[in-house]
Write a structure and sequence with these properties.
alpha+beta, six-stranded antiparallel beta sheet, single chain, elongated
């Protein structure tokens, strides 16, 4: 009968779709693993470059070169100024917006820390928003990074902040 044939055909399609969904799931998992490996390799390259950045200008050069390879479009880096553990004022030392290093004007680079970035800078409207990650060396907070939350795993941004912390401490000590 036609109903029996249609029922068998629908059943066959149902089984075929389940197999296809399983294959897609496996491919998606393999793609995620591959992407994570690629992110880790790129982060290792950045880490190696930051380990040799012994000055603020060296840090700026490394970031300008490697942020695009990580797919990071916008990033601001600020250091706290003033008395140790008083975080009232910050100084912007690196500005990168829409894949371009931005000029920092000395007269506007110092600002109240609660503003996150100096007055002339406006955050672009992005669907994923921004992350604010601190820079620490031992128990001392050095500053922070405001970075666009993009396609990377959050641990990549956190690892980048740790690497930049080390480079900043190295530049302060030298």
């Amino acid at each position: 009968s036609i109903a029996s044939t249609n029922s068998k055909y629908v059943h066959y399609l149902w089984k075929a779709s389940l197999v296809l969904i399983g294959e897609i799931g496996g491919s998606t998992h393999a793609f995620r693993r591959l992407r994570n490996n690629e992110e880790n390799i790129e982060l290792l390259r950045v880490s190696q470059a930051l380990a040799t950045a012994f000055s603020i200008s060296g840090l700026q050069t490394v970031l300008a070169r490697y942020l695009p390879t990580l797919g990071i479009k916008t990033c601001y880096i600020a250091l706290y100024e003033g008395v140790l553990n008083e975080r009232r004022f910050s100084r912007l030392i690196f500005a990168y917006k829409d894949n371009k290093v931005q000029e920092i004007h000395p007269e506007s680079s110092r600002y109240l820390s609660v503003k996150l970035v100096p007055e002339p800078i406006e955050f672009p409207q992005r669907k994923n928003g921004f992350l604010v990650l601190p820079f620490y060396f031992k128990n001392t907070q050095l500053g922070y990074m405001v970075i666009e939350n993009g396609p990377l795993n959050t641990r990549i941004y956190q690892s980048l902040a740790i690497q930049i912390s080390g480079a900043l401490e190295g530049s302060v000590l030298l």
